[in-house]
Amino acid sequence: MIIDAHVHLLSPRTRRDPAESFAGEGRFLSVEMSRPDLRAVWNRASYENLIAEMDRDRVDRAVVFGFPWKSASRCDWDNEYAAECAHRSGGRLLWMAVFQPGMAAESVAGFKQFVNDPNFLGMKIKAQFQDHSLANIELWRPLLNEVGRANKHALIHVQQPISPANGNGPLEFLELMRAFPGLRTIAAHFGGMLGMYWSYPLARQALENVLFDTALGLTAGEVAAAYTNIGLTDRLVFGSDFPMHSPGKIIADLKRKLAPEQLDRVLGQNYVRAVARFNS
Ligand SMILES: [Zn+2]
User: Fold this and answer.
1) Gap from CA of 240 to ligand 1 centroid (Å)
2) Ligand 1 centroid from CA 156, angstroms
3) How many Å lie between the centroid of ligand 1 and the Cα of residue 163?
4) What is the pLDDT of residue 46?
5) Ligand 1 centroid to 6 CA: how many Å?
6) How far does residue 243's CA lie from ligand 1's centre (Å)?
7) In angstroms, what is the span from residue 117 Cα to ligand 1's centroid?
8) Contacts by 131-135 with C-beta closer than 8 Å and gap 24+?
9) Does domain 3-274 have CATH number 3.30.1490.150?
10) What's the CA-to-centroid distance between 192 and ligand 1, angstroms?
11) How do residues 86-131 score in pLDDT, each as one tens digit?
């Protein structure tokens, strides 16, 4: 079974919103949503397009979530849409929620509302788009405590260390993990290469409950092979970052560099074992 653990869907309302309405978002999202060529990529993030790509690339299941908007309303629209798509898919999609952590009380209340949805897996974080640091532990504490209490997961964006300007790199992520050692977490984008430091007790202890997703457009296969050499095969889960990359592209990269038995674990078995089962 192939499970894509990292997929973005945007609410129809967000996809229709005029370019200028994104001016209050962070620098990255305001540019992405107002330049027509970039906007066209994100506007592909609909249920219909995703299912068509999954059919084409033979992806059986996916985990979907919205964008980390500064606007709490946009986060809500995406959460509603992700939940609705998971419901509509009849078991093919599960979903995670995105919140504005600066509004702790509202976000915790929102999280609690979702906890009993059988398709709900937890919370997606990309702090830099909301101008937050992962190392701001007290900001994240109310929400991450809820994630832990409900025995859900967090999927957290970790920036590659070669792009320091926006923060959210490996050091910030390590600090967050040290503060929440029991939190079941997937570190997106290979955790900003933190797996390469697995021999270092400092990293290994902080990453005890961490898996890594493979959402890296240029070198997913090479990095997955390196992680496998380090003994981390069972900590890798396939993620594409659709609509940024098509699932088929990342799968092809992984196929080129991993042995078939490793590939099966990364493409789906690890997710089922460590994160969540999908209904058949
Ligand atoms: Zn992503």
Assistant:
1) 8
2) 9
3) 16
4) 98
5) 6
6) 9
7) 23
8) 131/26, 131/70, 132/101, 132/102, 133/167, 133/168, 133/172, 134/167, 134/168, 134/172, 134/173, 134/175, 134/176, 135/171, 135/172, 135/175, 135/176
9) no
10) 13
11) 999 999 999 999 999 999 999 999 999 999 999 999 999 999 888 8
Single-letter amino acid, residue 84: E
Domain boundary assignment for the chain: 3-274
User: pTM of this prediction?
Assistant: 0.96
Strand order in the sheet with 153-156: 3-8, 61-65, 93-97, 120-125, 153-156, 185-187, 210-213, 236-237
CA end-to-end span of the chain: 11
As residues whose CB is below 5 A from the ion ligand 1, the structure lists: 241
Q: How far is the CA of 196 from the centre of ligand 1 (A)?
A: 21
